[in-house]
Design brief:
With 187 residues, this protein is α/β, with parallel strands linked by helices. Strands 2-1-3-4-5 form a five-stranded parallel sheet, with helices on both faces. α3 links the parallel β3 and β4. α3 packs across α4. The longest helix has 23 residues. The radius of gyration is 21 Å and the shape is elongated.
């Protein structure tokens, strides 16, 4: 496991009784768990939204009263935060997968049964973080409202065109709209 990222913080939403087992499963992969409770999240003591998306979250199904509560929480948070959901066993993992697919088909989440966590935690967290990074890169290339390219997208396109082989045809067009600010501010 050499060459893996070292000492990456992962917020763990789990019962205190599971923390040692979960930590021992993820630490060899270079991840460090920080225990949080649902109450801390509700009180805002651990901020999990688009302002702190780089910190992955490990959710233990044991931390929730019911599968419904877990699915609702995961559906709300996984849009912003890479989330690994740990089920008690493979049967619960299957049930959670079905439930989340029905309720929230597009989530940034992975699932793992507790008994397979030591083997799968590292690769699944790495996969989530990679997907999140890719999602962020694409999000910064296009404006969310208009779908038009951003300055970053323009810079990347110009770099591609300028590095193209000689004889490759390219055009560059600039449009300047006077008095566009009131229109832009209205939408």
């Amino acid at each position: 496991m050499d060459g893996m990222v070292k000492n990456v913080e992962v917020l763990a939403l789990c019962p205190q009784s599971e923390l040692a087992a979960l930590s021992s499963a993820v630490e060899p992969w270079g991840y460090r768990l920080s225990l949080k409770t649902p109450a801390e999240l509700e009180r805002g003591q651990a901020r999990l939204d688009e302002t702190a998306p780089h910190i992955p979250l490990l959710l233990s199904s044991s931390a929730f009263d019911s599968e419904e509560t877990l699915l609702d929480f995961a559906g709300g948070i996984s849009r912003f935060v890479p989330t690994l959901i740990v089920a008690k066993d493979m049967a619960e993992e299957t049930a959670l997968l079905s439930g989340i697919a029905a309720r929230h088909p597009i989530l940034l989440a992975e699932f793992c049964a507790f008994e397979r966590l030591s083997v799968q935690a590292g690769p699944r967290l790495a996969l989530l973080l990679g997907r999140y990074a890719e999602k962020n890169i694409h999000a910064h290339r296009k404006d969310g409202l208009t779908g038009l390219g951003t300055r970053l997208g323009l810079r990347e396109a110009l770099a591609r065109e300028l590095s193209a082989p000689l004889g490759h045809a390219a055009a560059f067009f600039i449009l300047d709209l006077d008095h566009f600010k009131p229109v832009n501010d209205s939408y």
